Amino acid sequence: MKLQLARRYCFAASHRLHSAQLGEEENKRIYGKCNNPYGHGHNYVVEVAVSGPVDPATGMIANLSDLDAFVTCEVLEPFDHKYLNEEIPEFRERVPTTENLCIEIFNRLRGFPRARLERVRLEETSLNSFEYTGEPAGSSR
Ligand code: NI
User: Fold this and answer.
1) The domain containing residue 49 runs over which residues?
2) Which of 38, 40, 45, 60 is 20 to 30 A off residue 18, Cα-Cα?
3) Cα-to-centroid distance, 10 and ligand 1 (Å)
4) Domain contains 134
């Protein structure tokens, strides 16, 4: 029996899309107004899905309060109301697109001790979202 538990969280953060691997003009062309020097913000919605057996004693895959505490510590506290480019070390060299942010959140949550992390889905706006399920087993990261 495989059962998944999914829970949604919200945080607000700002970023600037700018790649050090591209020139000024190319950055402007590719990222448009998202390349504006002073950044812009999003209200991100992140959905975290974990799986595991249902504990016969509790009837639960994992206690939501344990998941909440872990997500708060690993993602919400470090990211909420932050400028991702400067305040999250992983984005000093890597462009904080929602793709990269989704992968970073997955990597931060993969150590959840109470259940197996299956998926992180990140909504940047109500119109676009990204989903990451980790690298296939056996592939190098
Ligand atoms: Ni943006």
Assistant:
1) 2-127
2) 45
3) 15
4) no
Q: What is the pLDDT of residues 53-111, one digit of tens each?
A: 999 999 999 999 999 999 999 999 999 999 999 999 999 999 999 999 999 999 999 99
CATH value at residue 48: 3.30.479.10
Domains of the chain: total:
1
- pTM, two decimal places: 0.94
- Of 81, 99, 131, 135, the active-site residue reads 81
Q: Is residue 117 part of a domain?
A: yes
Alpha helices in the chain (DSSP H): 24-31, 64-71, 77-79, 84-87, 98-109
Question: What pLDDT was estimated at residue 136?
Answer: 78
Other CB atoms within a 10 A radius of the CB of residue 23 amount to: 9
Percent of the chain at pLDDT exceeding 90: 94
- Of the residues 34, 42, 47, 86, which is catalytic? 34
Task: Report if residue 136 sits inside a domain.
Answer: no
